[in-house]
Every structure is written in C-alpha cells, then in structure tokens.
Amino acid sequence: MIRYVVILLLLVSSKFVISQSYEWKLEHELINENIEAWDVNPVHEIIFSSNNVLYKLDDDLKKEFTQSRKSISDIVKIDAQHSLKTLIFSAAYQTVYFVDNTLSFQDADIQLFDLDVGYASNVCYSNQTNRFWVFDEQNTRLLRFGGVAGKDLQSKVSNLISITHRETPSEIIENNNEIFLFFNNHGTFVFDLNGSFLREYAYPKATSFYPTEKHLYFLLPGALVRLNRQTNEEVEILLPNKNIAEFKVFKNIFYFKNDEGISKYSLIPTR
C-alpha cells in the first residue's frame, strides 16, 4: 500500500525563512513487534535480530537471508555501515561478533574482557572493518580498537563524565571521521578519531539521533530536526506517523522503527 502524507517544511535562520512543501511516501512496511536491534547498510538492506534469529531484508523489505543465533543472547547493537561485514554486540556476553554478507558468523569474535574493558554498554564500527569503538560504562571512557585482529587500543577518551556530565550514552555512531555520543533528552557530543572533544549539540527533547555526511537529525516529539553540519541551519520536518522510537536516513530515504516494526519512507518535494 502506498500512502502519502503532505507536510510543510520550514527552514529558519537568522537571516531568512524558506517555506517548502514535501510529501512522505510510504514505500514498504515490515510488521514485527519483537525487533531487538537493527541497522541499514549502504545498499539499503536491513539487518535485524528477533526471537533468536538474524534477518537480512533487501531494498523492498523482502527476506534475503536468516541465521539462527540461539547461542548469543542480549544483542543490543547491530552496525551495518560496512555492507560486506556487519558488527553485532552482545552485552550479556560482552562480545563483538561479525557476520558476512550472508549472515554467516565469522570465527574472529572479540571478547571485550580480554581487552581490559570493565563493562561495555555500547559498541559501533569505525571507518574500517577491523576498527570499532567501545563505550566502557564501568570506567566512563570511550575506546577505539583496531589493528590486524582488531584488538589494539588506538585512541582513548578517559573520564568522559567530566565532559558530558552524563553517565551513559544511548547511542554511539561514527560518521565522516567523527564519533558521536548521543544522550537521550540531552543532545550529542562530538569527538574526532583521536578522541579530542570537538563540540556539543544540545537538544533536550531529542529521543533519537542519526548523522549523515551533510546533516545531523534529531528525533523530537512529532518531528525531526535536520541540522546542516556546515551552516548550522535547522529544518523541522513533521513525522509521517506516531510513536517512532528510532530512525535511519539515506539521502531522501527514511527508515522509522516503532513498536509495530519498521517502515520505509521517501521524502519528496512537491514544488
């Protein structure tokens, strides 16, 4: 079923206001109330975990591959930014796993306890498949590992709480050679790949966050805020439906997750 939602988009800066009409077009829907973790890779394939099974869907949200993962519990993060190798993090096992393009598990999983990590609450990919970030909640520090086996400590930010004044980020994600720490109902802190603090984006009503090359997106009640990374101009975009908890963005394609599943929309200018 194709559904359109017409919205009015306002761009506000200190100098001008631009009004532009857009439409949300519903492309596809996935109904699944038990999605634990999910991501979308660069070729618009969705990888998600549900009821002890990993799924991979194509661009039309049709099933491509499945893989049982009964031996792995508490998957809290899937990072698919590298299309041929997806990162999976189990908080219960404090282990980082990798699956290939067919969701087959690779042999080289990484036990974070072996890397002197106290307790990791979040993990994300870095700019290469052998590099990843870890938020060590026990020691309030951010670590980046790499090297041939992905076990060499390459950068570290210690005592993060002195910078963020918050304990645990709800999301960490690297984009465009910057690492973003998003704190629910507060905003986002940005660091470079060496761990140097760059800046803060304060959005006290934001409940989710996603960066792209040109923009930062913040999920607010009833709307998305799109922030231009170069000009700092903001656009507020009304959401196509309610109760959205998480989202991903690829140019004009948006993936929204709520309690019922995942919806794929395109945002189309009408004039």
Question: Could you please describe the fold and organization of this structure?
Answer:
- The chain has one domain: 6 Propeller (Neuraminidase), CATH 2.120.10.
- It contains 1 helix and 25 strands.
- The protein has one helix at residues 161-164; strands at residues 4-12, 17-31, 35-40, 46-50, 53-57, 63-68, 75-79, 86-90, 95-99, 110-111, 120-125, 132-136, 141-146, 152-157, 171-175, 178-183, 187-192, 197-202, 208-211, 215-220, 223-228, 234-238, 246-250, 253-258, 261-269.
- It has a 9-stranded antiparallel β-sheet with strand order 19-20-21-22-1-2-25-24-23, with no helix packed on it. It has a 4-stranded antiparallel β-sheet with strand order 3-4-5-6, with no helix packed on it. Strands 7-8-9-10 form a 4-stranded antiparallel β-sheet, with no helix packed on it.
- It is globular and about 55 Å long.
The amount of helix comes to under 10%
Mean pLDDT: 91
Number of helices: 1
Shape call: globular
Write down how many β-strands occur, each being a DSSP E stretch of 2 or more residues: 25
Report the CATH superfamily. TolB, C-terminal domain
Q: Which features characterize this protein?
A:
271 residues, mainly beta, Neuraminidase, 4-stranded antiparallel β-sheet, 1 helix
Describe how the helices and strands are arranged:
Blueprint: E1 4-12, E2 17-31, E3 35-40, E4 46-50, E5 53-57, E6 63-68, E7 75-79, E8 86-90, E9 95-99, E10 110-111, E11 120-125, E12 132-136, E13 141-146, E14 152-157, H1 161-164, E15 171-175, E16 178-183, E17 187-192, E18 197-202, E19 208-211, E20 215-220, E21 223-228, E22 234-238, E23 246-250, E24 253-258, E25 261-269
Antiparallel strand pairs: 1-2, 1-22, 2-25, 3-4, 4-5, 5-6, 7-8, 8-9, 9-10, 11-12, 12-13, 13-14, 15-16, 16-17, 17-18, 19-20, 20-21, 21-22, 23-24, 24-25
